[in-house]
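Example complex used in Figure S2.
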Amino acid sequence: MASVCFYFQVHQPLRLRHYTVFDKNDQYFDDYKNAAICRKVANKCYLPTNRLLLDIIQRCEGRFKIAYSLTGILLEQLLSFSPEVVSTFDALAETGCVEFLAETYYHSLSFLYSRNEFLDQVNKHVETIQSFFGQKPRVFRNTELIYNNDLAALIESMGNFDALMTEGADHILGSRSPNFVYRPKGCSRLKLLLKNYSLSDDIAFRFSNHDWSQWPLTADKFARWINAVNGNGNVVNLFMDYETFGEHQWEETGIFDFMRHLPEEILRHPDNNFKTPSEVIDSYDAVDTIDVPHLISWADIERDLSAWVGNAMQSNAIHELYRLEKKIKSIDNEKIKADWRKLQTSDHFYYMCTKWFSDGDVHKYFNPYDSPYDSYINFMNVLGSLNNRCSKHLAADTEALAGQSLGGLQKAGTPVGLKA
Amino acid sequence: MKVFMLGWEFPPFISGGLGTACYGLTKAMDQLGMKVTFVLPKIVDTKYATHVNLLAPVFQTTSASQFGEMKNVKFHAITSPLQPYSTPDIYRRQIEEILRQKHKSHGVTLPDADDAAGPTDYNSNLYAEVHRYAILAAQLAATTDFDIIHAHDWMTYPAGIMVSKMSGKPLIVHVHSTEFDRSGQNVNQMIYDIEREGMHAAHKIIAVSHFTRSIIISRYGVPGDKVEVVHNAADHNGGWNWTSSENTVIRDEKIVLFLGRITMQKGPEYFLQAAKKVLEVIDNVRFVMAGSGDMLHRTVEMVAQLGIGHKVLFTGFLRGEDVQKIYQMADLYVMPSVSEPFGIAPLEALNYDVPVIISKQSGVSEVIKHALKVDFWDVNEIANKIIAVLKYPPLRETLANYGNFEVRRLRWKDTAQKCARIYEEALAAG
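Predicted assembly (850 residues):
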C-alpha cells in the first residue's frame, strides 16, 4: 500500500517598508507592496491552484486528499487584499477532503526563543483555523519544519495534537526510509511524518530544470516512482510550498497540467491512494523511533537553521527582538504587541542571510532587499522605534500610577532601566 | 608578449587609483612573465624633485630593483610635468610653481633638458605638453622592441596613437576614467576630443567597469564589441601588521573616513551633509577627510556653514604609512562618488577590515557585494547607514569579515591575464 500525502505550506510575510533611523512614525509595514504581492500571488497561484484542486477533488469523488497550513498573517493579508481566495479555501474545506494543520500564527521562530510566546502563537493559530474552516487541527508543523526532540515533547504535552511533521533528512533517518510513520524519541503517543524530500523536490524545485536528467517530468513518470514505493513504504509525504504552483514554477512550465493529471495516474495503481496527515496516522503505526537531539529544518542542503540565524546580524536581530518580550507583555497595548509579533516572522531573518549572497541564487528571488545588510539595518531601525514606543508607554504608565498614589505619599521613583 | 606600456606614477609616490592600478597590473604581468617596457612621465614636482633632476636626461632607464623585484619590466621615465588627474588649470599653476622655484635657485643657469620644448616654452599649454610627450614616447619606441601598446587614460592616448602609427602595432587604450566622470556635464572639449580620438584609434578598449563601458559606448560613440570590461583588483600586502599595539588607541569616538581627492567627482559635499545628519542622532563620532583637491577650500567653508567644524578633521593629502594609519583608525569608510569608474580605495579599506559604504554610481560596486550601497545624492540614506554601522557591532563585523574575504579573491593576476587575452585578440585581428 502506498499512500500519497500532500501538504502545502501557504505563507506570505508582511514586508517592512523602508524605515530609516530618522523615521518617527509607527507604520512599519509596506501596505502597498504587500497588497501588490498578495494580489499577484493570488492570481498566479492561490486562485488557479485552488480551483484546480477543487476540480480534481470533485472529479475523483473524494479519493483525492490534501492538507494545508495557512499562516495567520497570510490569512490576515488575504482578508484585506484578496478575500476571494479565502472563500475558495473555504470551498476546499467544505469537501471534507482537505485537512488544515496548525503552526505558529506568525510563522515565527518563537519555539527557539520563547516557549510562552510559542504556545500563545500556536493556540492563536488553532483558534483562527477553527473559526475560518470549522476544523480543529490535529497535526502540527513548525515554521520551516524546524524540529528536535524537545519540540516533539512540548507538542505532546499540549495534549491537542496527534502528530507533527518534519524533514526526512538523511542524517536523522540513517538507512531508514521516510516512507513510514515514526515516533519521536521521548514521546509515547505522538507520531511523526517525514517529508520525502527527493520526490517533493522533484516537483517543487526540479520540475522546470532543463538540465535535470529526468526533465520533462510527466504525471505518469512521477506515478511510476510512487508505485515503486509499494511494498517498501506506507506513505509518501510530499510537502512543499504552495507557491510552487504558478509562482516558483510558472504556468508555462506545465506545472498545472502535471498536477491535473497526477491524481488519476497515481490512482491507476489499485494499491495507491491519497490520505490527509490525520488519515495517515490513523492508518499506520509507528515503525520506529526517531531521535533528533539537534535542530533541523527543511532549508537548503544543510537542513539546519543557518538560513535564519547563521550570521552575527541574524542572531543579534532575533535576540534583540525577543529581549523585548518582557517589556511588551508588561504593557497593555494590542497594537504594539501585534507589531512585535509581526516582526517575528522568520522571513525577516531569512532576508539577512549571507550564506548564498555572493553567488546570488534562490534566496534572492524571495528577497525584497538588495542585500542582507540593508535588511538588517531596516529591521533594527524598526525594532529601535518599537522599543521607544514601549519605553514611552511604560513611562506614561508609571506616571499615571504615581499620580494615583495618595497625595500624602512621596512620589515613587521611576523604576530603573526605563529611560531608553 | 612584449608590451609597450604608457603608464603612470609608481610607489612610493602614488596620488590615486590610476597609479595603484598601473602598479598592480604591471607587477602581475611581470609575475606572469610578460615583458613590459613601462614608460611614465617623471614628475617635476618641486616637493620631491630638486633642480638637479632637471639636469637629468630626457630618458631615464631605471633599474627595476628600485620598484621591487620586477625582472621582466624595464622602466623609462620621460621628463615631463604631466600628472594624473591634471586639468589645464592645475597644469598652469604647476608650471608657474616650477618657474618660481627655478628663479629662486640662486642664478644657477639650468641647462634645458629638452631644447625643443623646455618648461619655459610650454605656454602653459597642457595640450602642447601631451603632444610633446607623445613625440618623446615615439622616439623611445623607435629603439624598443614590442608587440603591443597599452595606454592608460587620456594624457597618454596621443602618445599611444603616435607609437602605433609609427610601429604598426595595435593600440589598446585603458580607460580608468572619462572626462564625464571628472567634470560632470562641464566637459573640457579638448580633453574629450583627445579621449574620443584615442578610443576610436584603439584596436581594443579596456574599461575598468561596466559602468565606464556604458559611458564609452553612449558618450564617445564607440561600438560595444570593441570595449571589454576588466575590473581592477587589490594588493594584499597591506593590512598585515596592523594589529601592532602602537596603533591600538582606545578611544570613545568613532571615526568615519572619507579618503580621496576632494573634488566634485568624489562627492565631498554629500559626505558632509550626511555627517550633519548623523550628528543629529549620535555624538561620539568624528568625520575625517583625507585628501586634497580643487574643492578643498569650498569644503572647509561648507563644514563651517553646517556648524560641524568640531566634528570634522582635514588631514590633507596622505601617503604611505599615513594612509595605512588612517585606515587602521577608521571604523567606516564612505565613498559617496558622483561618478566613479572603479574606485580602488574601498578595496584597500576592506583590506584593513574597515567596512565600506560605496556609491551605486561606481565600478567597484560591480565586484563587491559585501558593502553598503547608496545613491550618492541620498544623504538621508548615507546617514542612516553610517549610524547603523556605528550603532550595531554585528553589522560592522559581518561587513568587514565577508568584505575582506571578498577582496582577497580579487587578484591583479586575473586582471593581467584578461589584458593578455585582449592583447592576443587584438593581435589576431591584425
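Residues 412-429 of chain B form the longest helix (18 residues). Chain B has 15 helices and 14 strands.
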